[in-house]
Amino acid sequence: MGQLGTTNHPGATGDVLTDLIDIGAGTRGLDYIQCIPGGVPGEKHAPNLFTHVDRFLFVNLDGKRFIKEDARRDVLRDAMLDQPKAIAWTIVDADGFEQQKNSKGPENEAALKAGTLYYADSIEDLAKKIGVPANNLKEAVDTYNKAVDTKKDPLGRAEGVLVNKIIKAPFYAGRVTMKRHHTMGGVIINKDAQVIDRRGNVIPGLYAAGEVTGGIHGTNRVGGNAMADIFTYGRIAGVNAAKNPA
Fold it and tell me: Which of 37, 79, 97, 232 has its CA 20 to 30 A from that of 22?
């Protein structure tokens, strides 16, 4: 994991977590690292074509699909890291690219200028530009488009995201790898948001909530659940700390 980039800001160094460990806090789940797709290291302006899961495909450096694009984050992480050089291509058509403008327009315009976002008027020409076998890429797109009609994807993509074919030129491609996004683990707390030490005892006057805690999300966090976590346990921690000042 050390060679992967991160989606986080430079200040996300986990200092509070290590301080809590130093005073005896117990931990769980620190070996569960959640990753999400991101730009390839060295590309200053990385494209983002993967916001809308109903619009894109992932293919590896051989031009072949290797994972259902709606897979859990941990499943997608392992599949992508298992590909050659841990790199994949994201493929969208003109409609998919237009959809991306809602949230990633400036990023993709910068990538176009930087030459890290590729496009062509046919799948075969796009394959040449990105250096993958044209027959493999065409087969991947054709098989997916057929799955949209049959609602049966060979890789198991859910019917609800088999709705948009990749058929409208120009077609776009951007490289992608996995980036460290969230550490599932942290200090152990109880239902009252009290921090538990390594012997299973409450540490008096110490409360925790949010990403410094572990065990709340299990091995895979669903992004929206983090909001429920921080607000719920944050309020519990605040109320209990006010009632029981150290």
Answer: 232
The reply to whether 164 and 86 lie within a common domain is: yes
Q: Which of 55, 73, 157, 221 is labelled catalytic?
A: 73
* Predicted confidence (pLDDT) at residue 235 exceeds the cutoff of 70: yes
Three-state SS at 100:
helix
pTM reported for the whole predicted model:
0.81
Percentage helix, strand, coil for the chain under 3-state DSSP, each rounded to 5: 35, 20, 45
Q: Percent of the chain at pLDDT above 70? A: 98
The pLDDT tens digits of the residues spanning 72-126 come to 888 999 999 999 999 999 999 999 999 999 889 999 999 999 999 999 999 999 9
Any idea what the CATH number is for the domain that residue 106 is in?
3.90.700.10
199 is catalytic: no
Q: Are residue 24 and residue 67 in the same domain, yes or no? A: no
Q: State the residue range of the domain holding 239.
A: 15-32+184-243
